[in-house]
Design goal:
- 45% of the residues lie in helices and 20% in strands.
- The chain has 362 residues and is an alpha+beta fold.
- The chain folds into 2 domains: 110 residues, Methane Monooxygenase Hydroxylase, Chain G, domain 1, CATH 1.20.58.410; 153 residues, Alpha-Beta Plaits (2-Layer Sandwich), CATH 3.30.70.
- Strands 2-3-1-5-4-9-10-11 form an 8-stranded mixed sheet. The protein has a 3-stranded antiparallel sheet with strand order 6-7-8, covered by helices on one side.
- α1 packs antiparallel against α3, α1 packs parallel to α4 and α3 runs antiparallel to α4.
- The chain is globular and about 75 Å long.
Amino acid sequence: MDDINKKAHDLQKEVLKSIKIIDLDGLIEQKTKIDDETLKSDFWKDNLLAQEKLKQQAKLAKQIEPWQKLEVSLNDILELSSMNDEALSGDLVKQIDEASSLYNLLKEDLKLNGPYDDHDAILSIYAGAGGTDAQDWTQMLFRMYVRWAEKNDFNIKTIDEAPGDEAGLKNVTFEVSGPFAYGKLKSEHGVHRLVRLSPFNSAGSRETSFAKVDVLPKVDSPEELDIDDKDLRIDVYRSGGHGGQSVNTTDSAVRITHIPTGMAVAIQNERSQLQNRETAMTILRSRLIQLQIDQHREKISELKGPNQSAEWGNQIRSYVLHPYKQVKDLRTKHESNDPEAVLNGGLDEFISAYLDLNSKYN
């Protein structure tokens, strides 16, 4: 029983150290504040703000509750082990093993200590070299991230997409919402290469195709990034493509250009010009934040335009389906011999390997 008690005390010590690192008290304070706001009579006065608050509340709850559950479990184990009842030893060993497994899972979050790691993520996938194969590859990657999100109980919202000429997608932009979504998905930023027997080639020859994945932290609060209005050019125009008659017959599409960097965002997915403008501003803020991260600049005025060609050459991972089966990350050297499982959303090993390589937490 002394051995069980020591294990429980040692684990509790590690857990308490981790709780300080993630500032659990601070997270609880944030959630309590939102809880109080939801009880006010005018909470739904601003519907969009209320929905955003509820999303923050749910995200905080997902972060807080597992750590609270772990704390309670360890306190129960320590209380029972102090009774020195040998009849309880088998059950206590099982409980410690379960608590230890939960802690090992939660420790992954400690690696997510970047300034925007706790934000939701905006991903854009663009077909590169490879024609129809590349457009099909873009859709395969989109499906991979959707499956990964579903496995992790994250939410997906498609913002914009352009169908391919024969198959697949030319590009797609979507939002992933959940605890540390950006922190986990930032490892996917870069060029992804596919090697396979082409289903679009009558000769069935082996083809190599590319798709570029941009991963941004979702920054929808103007307070997080100060953009001078005079640095923006806003154009409105008539939407085209999917979306219904009202989309196609009104000037609802919006293009916002950040003049100093030349960065432009065009959105036509929503029915109203106001919604498209808000979405475009969110994506523009997010791209400028990512540009700050990439260029290590503190002020927006210091940013240079994004170097697309350099980013395009930043191949991060290869997926080989023929003549052998392998997925290999070229940064971490992590490999999998089961590409089907990876393409079905099995990304956690690759994400963990990237975080291990880049995390400041030991």
